Amino acid sequence: MGIHSTRRSVWGAPLVLVRRHLRSHHGLARHCGSGSLGHCGHVLRPCCSPDAVDPAQALLVKRHPPFDEDAWRRERQREAAGEILACPDCGSSAWFHPIGIPPATGAERKYRACKNCGFWQEADGTAAYRTWLSTHTCIIETKSKFACQTCGQRVAPNAEGSAVHHCGKYLCPDEEGYTCGTCGKWLGRDTSTPWASVGSG
Questions:
Q1: In this model, does residue 8 exceed pLDDT 60?
Q2: Which of 57, 99, 116, 151 has its CA 20 to 30 A from that of 9?
Q3: Domain boundaries in the chain?
């Protein structure tokens, strides 16, 4: 899938959000988008909380009012005017933004996302949902610099010929994991990284 990114993670690269169809806990058809995590601007932390949160509880999100394209445009206008928006789910303004793919127009997709609690809501009137974040240390043997197939980060090998970087991907609530396109490892629920806030869950 394409990487639509103007923002970077702390490792200097976007992280991919897989596209999946699912049903939220409200029973409404949902989908995660094909935009990258880097585009969303998430600053990854190896562990946001010292206490592990039960995955089933972590993915719950309260019912929020419908969010449509007009609401999306109003939030973009408020940001353009200098207002710092806060997540409607956890209340944090650490990183909450209305996102467009492509960034300038949102012609392909419009949504809003919080990188403090994983709150996601499409600008199509459907129910909000919470993503989960899988992270791992990606290691391969190579002699050349390369771009990670999973997160897009540019990685250079060390003197011993090992290329090591912290890699990750956002997944939708019904995703059990994924296979890293660089190191080939299966990354399941045991690689879930807690959000800084559990939000309304």
A1: no
A2: 57
A3: 16-51+63-130, 133-192
